[in-house]
## 1
Amino acid sequence: MWRNEEGAIASRFIYEHMNLYAQRSSNIRRTWALVLGFLIVVIAVGYAVSAYYGNPSILYIAIVFAVATNFYAYWYSDKLVLSLSNARAATREEFFDFYTVTENLAIAAGLPKPKLYVIDDPAPNAFATGRDEKHAVVCATTGLLSQMTRPELEGIIGHELSHIKNRDILLMTIAVVLAGLIALLANFFLRMSFWGGGRGGSNKQGNAL
């Protein structure tokens, strides 16, 4: 009986361990697929717009924009998210439970302790961001930290650390940043169409001559 229970526990541990690495690999593949898809879409749109306006420089701008955006999204997306959220660094003295709970759970999970940030907001919320385990950030609102008991906080932080362990924080962060930048790019091209120029402008100049 004891050996059967031990075998069941061992089998479950092996299954969960393998499932974790499968999720990590899947999230990494999805991240690179998202980056590559964004690159292709922006270049394709740039090519179409440059052909419409008869201006090859638009295509070159689109290529530079796509490459620079992917680079920025990978290396600096976490800083952008924290900046937009008006987050500030959390100290051990000011947020003792937040700091020590994260520190203890990170050790238990075999993770480097992520950087901790807080947002001055009464609404309870928390999220994780960053490109990998060594550059991860866990951020919580002051409302959450003031309302949660230590066991409840452990559950929330454990959930955020699972996102870091599974490597899906990079996928989610890049998706948000790229979506915002696509909206900016669409707005840029829309303003170009309102300003005139391109093929329409050339035809008007030809008719005037």
## 2
Amino acid sequence: DGASINANTGSVAFDRTVYPVPYGAVSGTQFLEHATAGTSALAQGDVVVHVRVTDADYNVSAQGEDTITDANVTLNIERGSAVQFLATIGNTNANINSGLNGIVEVSPDSGVFEYDQTVTYTSGPSTDCPSVFSGGCILQGDIITVEYTDNNDASGKTQTVTDSATFDLRNGVLQ
């Protein structure tokens, strides 16, 4: 009888290629907000992006849900040459957000791991933002990128894979 030992190359993907532009209130003025939304914090239109990492190397428990804790998944928002760091997940390194450690497997023995990241209207770069913003903003055409560093790909080496999506404003349709 024989057995082989091998590694798999992981992949990363967003659940969509286009996300709506997040909206909310800025300094008491409504910015791209629905007319009926009001001014409370609950009225904000945050966007949740779903990041999915597929890597069979981390599927080590046949009956339980596994967690990726030693590989980096980094999210950034880009506008031209400006880049705004959003989050790093899946690494227990003390230099990163300690509340974002680990990407959990979606079901036992699947090798598919998922993480949800909330993006607010102020999550983007500060370049070209309207003057009412004190920090960054998300504008139509901004790009969100995810980068997954697979510590052991199919050849046993480190490899980085990426995916991206855009933020876009869409018109409603009445039928």
